[in-house]
Amino acid sequence: QVQPVESGGGLVQAGGSLRLSCAASGSIFSINTIGWYRQTPGKERELVAIITHSGTTNYADSVKGRFTIFRDNAKNTVYLQMNSLKNEDTAVYSCKSVVPAGPWGQGTQVTVSS
User: Fold this and answer.
1) Residue 17: CB partners within 8 Å, gap ≥ 6?
2) Lateral strand order in the sheet of 67-72
3) Backbone angles phi, psi at 81, to 5 degrees
4) Largest Cα span, the chain
């Protein structure tokens, strides 16, 4: 399994939007189930969104209606579109292949300011 690379994090005001990218080389990535997770200091890592190879998605209740996970298999990339961001969305966001299990990426910091 290839380590994915996340990008797109940054500082944004509450109510704003960011799009995160999770890219990995190799055609296998395009048929994997991929998850986006987030973690803040002192808290357990939380599954935010997940997408299967066929495009079925699922979301944590805290982000439903605000976040969208989608994939571009031709680019071996999975995206997380985050809208209406809140202060509590501040975290390090990481992606990984869930099925089959793969390594974590390095993560990308998202900071939402008031």
Assistant:
1) 81, 82, 83, 84, 85
2) 5-7, 18-23, 77-82, 67-72
3) -85, 120
4) 41
Contact, 107 vs 52, CB < 8 A?
Answer: no
Tens digit of pLDDT for each residue in 74-99?
Answer: 888 999 999 999 999 999 999 999 99
Distance CA 104, CA 86 (A): 25
Rounded to an integer, what distance in angstroms lies between the CA atom of residue 51 and that of residue 46?
A: 15
Full 3-state SS string of the chain:
CCCCEEECCEEEECCCCEEEEEECCCHHHHHCEEEEEEECCCCCCEEEEEECCCCCEEECHHHCCCEEEEEEHHHCEEEEEECCCCHHHCEEEEEEEEECCCCCCCCEEEEEEC
pLDDT digits (tens, 9 = 90+) for 31-65: 889 999 999 999 999 999 999 989 999 999 999 99
As a residue count, the chain comes to: 114
Residue that is written with structure tokens 């960011």 in the block: 18
